[in-house]
């Protein structure tokens, strides 16, 4: 690909993730987007996969049992002149470090909120990670076909709970049974809910006055007048649309709609894709930045998925391409080891099937078959200049188990497995100060199950895991360490680097500790 084509291709890319709380409608809206992109032909395809009604290949057994599939990890399609990559952020029981790390590989995020429920805990957690990255966040207030909370309330909540300004892009005309349409503030039109025909779907507005031109039955509807009053109020008291703030993730454009009835989704997709950024530069460990239009290939591994089928020991390393073009069979340098690697089997992800990729550019994700070469956070590149992307952050685990080998005679394989799996970054390992007991920490429960399964199948080591429940992990300054501060309610442990931290049983235990030791500073990872 010549320089100009490469630049054009990169400029077309839009790579984002959808963040939400379970049941807000992420799957439904993803499916609608795939329909617009022509990837699927029927609604229900992604849904069927989620509920386990989908014929997947022999991928991870645990994944299969839970009805998820690696093929849905990345979905790619063309829409409105853009090449869209949607990265899935596993939720429900599959919520894990991977969910967070995926957010390191995107250029924007879409936040789906159930308009009856408002901002829920998982949305908040994911939002925090996205906010730290300073990338644009677009909000879809879903389920407008049901009675929900007041639109103004929902926007105010963004500021109260997430500390981000919300700026309304459209405004609901009624909701639930009374839903009539969406007043589209920037496109100067009303999108009718359930119009009689396609021709009557949009009602144009006079851009000067913001009112319907000519005659229209809607003008007689009280909801119309009410909406005009709301819009007046918004333009006086609401946040002002600000491109710079949106780009920095300080303001989120808010769209209302209903994913299930496919109402407002297409307008949303068009509008946010027009504002979402193409791949930009990435920070390097050297302190320099690398532009997405740099000619040489580079990328980093943000997720490694193991194949749980013992007959297939291969794994897939997911690479976010940061610059240049990826080509099948190319030789790259692995920054961590300085060794050359030939990349033979690469997979580009489509929602319907896995396809062999010939080439991909900055912004795209490729899956590389891995026989143990890669670690999460690895940088790969071609060209003479060394490229090491910034380290991926570690996330504070929330669940903990004590782990021991069932057979004390098999300590060697136990330790080997522990060491290798911990290095992959799926779980974090801690040791107690007093007795050197192993404690594993993870963001989600699934990680423990995968760990146990792989210890048995890959290292022939049966492990016993004793849950010690949800805990809050807080790091302390090693200089302030005093083993006498440890108790069952605030267990003192050290991480792999030897840094001390407490695992608090709950908030009360943490507050009690803070009162007792006011001089000790407690820190989280991210
Ligand atoms: P998730 O991926 O965020 O977990 O949510 P998902 O899309 O699976 O949606 C969760 C539930 O909310 C589903 O109902 C779905 O049909 C419903 N839903 C999604 N968008 C809308 C919407 O705009 N309006 C309404 N009224 N409902 C919506 P379910 O009963 O759990 O599943 P199903 O049996 O209906 O498929």
Model description:
This protein is of the alpha+beta class. It folds into 3 domains: 16-275, Rossmann fold, CATH 3.40.50; 282-381, Rossmann fold; 399-523, 2-Layer Sandwich (Alpha-Beta Plaits), CATH 3.30.70.3280. The chain is 25% helix and 29% strand. The strands form 6 sheets. An 8-stranded antiparallel sheet has the order 18-17-23-14-15-22-19-20. A hairpin with an 8-residue loop joins strand 14 (298-306) and strand 15 (315-323). Helix 11 crosses helix 12.
Bound ligands: guanosine-5',3'-tetraphosphate
Major β-sheet profile: 8 strands, antiparallel
Number of strands: 30
Q: How is the largest sheet built, in terms of strand order?
A: 18-17-23-14-15-22-19-20
Mean pLDDT: 88
Radius of gyration over C-alpha positions, nearest whole angstrom? 25 Å
Structural class: alpha+beta
Name the CATH superfamily classification of the largest domain: P-loop containing nucleotide triphosphate hydrolases
Q: Which bin fits the share of residues in helices? A: 25-40%
CATH architecture descriptor text of the largest domain: 3-Layer(aba) Sandwich
The total count of helices amounts to 13
Shape: globular
Give the amount of beta strand, in percent: 25-35%
Regions with pLDDT < 50 over 5+ consecutive residues? 52-71, 350-354
Q: Assign the CATH class of the largest domain.
A: Alpha Beta
- Termini gap: 39 Å
Kindly give the count of domains. 3
Classify the fold: give the CATH topology of the largest domain.
Answer: Rossmann fold
Would you summarize the structure shown here?
This is Peptide chain release factor 3. The chain has 526 residues and is of the alpha+beta class. It folds into three domains: 16-275, Rossmann fold, CATH 3.40.50.300; 282-381, P-loop containing nucleotide triphosphate hydrolases (Rossmann fold, 3-Layer(aba) Sandwich), CATH 3.40.50.300; 399-523, Alpha-Beta Plaits, CATH 3.30.70.
């Amino acid at each position: 690909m010549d320089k100009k084509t490469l630049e054009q291709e990169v400029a077309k890319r839009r790579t984002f993730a959808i963040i939400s709380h379970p049941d807000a409608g992420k799957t439904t809206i993803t499916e609608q987007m795939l329909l617009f992109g022509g990837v699927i032909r029927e609604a229900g395809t992604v849904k069927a996969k989620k509920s386990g009604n989908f014929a997947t290949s022999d991928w991870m057994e645990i994944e299969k049992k839970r009805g998820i599939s690696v093929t849905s990890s990345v979905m790619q399609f063309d829409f409105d002149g853009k090449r869209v990559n949607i990265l899935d952020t596993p939720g429900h029981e599959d919520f894990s470090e991977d969910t967070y790390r995926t957010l390191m590989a995107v250029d924007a995020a879409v936040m789906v909120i159930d308009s009856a429920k408002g901002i829920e805990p998982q949305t908040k957690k994911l939002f925090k990670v996205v906010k730290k990255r300073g990338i644009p966040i677009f909000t879809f207030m879903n389920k407008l076909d049901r009675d929900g909370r007041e639109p103004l309330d929902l926007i105010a909540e963004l500021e109260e709970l997430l500390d981000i300004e919300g700026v309304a892009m459209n405004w609901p005309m009624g909701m639930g049974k009374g839903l009539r349409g969406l007043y589209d503030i920037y496109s100067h039109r009303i999108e009718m809910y359930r119009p009689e025909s396609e021709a009557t779907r949009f009602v144009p507005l006079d851009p000067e006055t913001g009112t319907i031109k000519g005659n229209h039955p809607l003008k007689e509807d009280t909801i119309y007048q009410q909406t005009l009053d709301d819009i007046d109020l918004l333009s006086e008291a609401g946040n002002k649309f600000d491109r710079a703030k949106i780009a920095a993730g300080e303001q989120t454009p808010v769209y209302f709609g209903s994913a299930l009835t496919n109402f407002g989704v297409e307008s949303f997709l068009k509008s946010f894709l027009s504002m979402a950024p193409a791949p930009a530069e990435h920070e390097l460990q050297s302190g320099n930045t690398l532009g997405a239009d740099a000619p040489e290939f580079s990328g980093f591994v943000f997720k490694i998925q193991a194949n749980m089928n013992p007959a297939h020991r291969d794994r897939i390393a997911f690479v976010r391409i940061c610059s240049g073009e990826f080509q099948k069979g190319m030789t790259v340098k692995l920054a961590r080891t300085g060794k050359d690697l030939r990349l033979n089997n690469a997979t580009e992800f489509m929602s319907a099937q896995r396809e062999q990729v010939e080439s991909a550019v900055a912004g795209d994700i490729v899956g590389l078959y891995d026989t143990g070469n890669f670690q999460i956070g690895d940088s790969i590149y071609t060209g003479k200049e060394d490229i090491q992307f910034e380290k991926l952050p570690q996330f504070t685990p929330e669940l903990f188990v004590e782990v021991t080998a069932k057979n004390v005679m098999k300590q060697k394989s136990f330790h080997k497995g522990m060491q290798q799996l911990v290095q992959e970054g799926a779980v974090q390992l801690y040791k107690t100060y007093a007795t050197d007991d192993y404690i594993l920490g993870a963001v989600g429960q699934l990680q423990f199950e995968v760990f146990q399964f792989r210890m048995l199948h890959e290292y022939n080591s049966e492990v016993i895991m004793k849950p010690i429940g949800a805990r809050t992990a807080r790091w302390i300054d090693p200089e302030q360490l005093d083993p006498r501060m440890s108790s069952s309610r605030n267990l003192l442990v050290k991480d792999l680097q030897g840094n001390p931290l407490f695992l608090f049983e709950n908030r009360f235990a943490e507050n009690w500790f803070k009162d007792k030791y006011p001089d000790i500073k407690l820190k989280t990872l991210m």
